[in-house]
Amino acid sequence: MTHDLVTSLHPLLAAEASAEAYASGAEPGDLEQAVWLRLLERLEDDGPPSDPHRWLRSAVRTEARRTRRTARNERPYGNEPDAVAEYVHEPERIALTAARHRALRDAVRRLPGRCPRLMEALLSPKDLTYREIAGELGISQGSLGPERSRCLGCLRRLLTPEVAAG
After folding, report:
1. Other beta carbons within 10 Å of 31
2. Cβ proximity of 66 and 25 under 8 Å
């Protein structure tokens, strides 16, 4: 039954989605996928619609409206380079960034064992490779990943109270 319904609705859905996609700013395939999902949800909850063709046309228009509304309300990151550049250089932003870096460096110094040296090497502005870090620390390159994971776990535990308080 469901297979026959999907087969019979496919051409109509493709045509309706193509017709509505341009005006809504969506891709026809995205509209089709959203409507198929709505149909599957409906079949699961209420069974097949009494007039599948009418339901499909309505569902396509509803999804197109939803897409237009979403596109109208969303703002992508990075489209205002001047505003972002100004924000980065604001005194408050500079002070907050410096405070975060100080807190991170202080927490790294409090880590146990080899972790402070490992984390300093990972945070180095030289952007060292794993091979260079392993040579600098005198450990095998293969043990660097597990050691890094352990150190990051310790660092996370140290920083959690500070992050929660901030």
Report:
1. 26
2. no
Q: Is 20 helix (H, G, I), strand (E, B) or coil?
A: helix
* Straight-line distance from the first to the last Cα atom of the chain, in angstroms, rounded to the nearest whole number: 57
| Number of residues in the chain | 166
Cβ atoms of residues 17 and 31 within 8 Å: yes
Distance separating alpha carbons of residues 31 and 16, to the nearest angstrom = 9
Residue 67: C-alpha distances to residues 58, 70, 71 (Å): 14, 5, 6
Give residues with Cβ within 8 angstroms of 35, minimum separation 6: 13, 17, 56, 59, 60, 63
Cut 0.85: pTM above it: no
For tokens 């620390």, name the residue. 137
> How confident is the model over 65-96, as pLDDT tens digits?
888 888 777 766 655 555 555 556 788 888 88
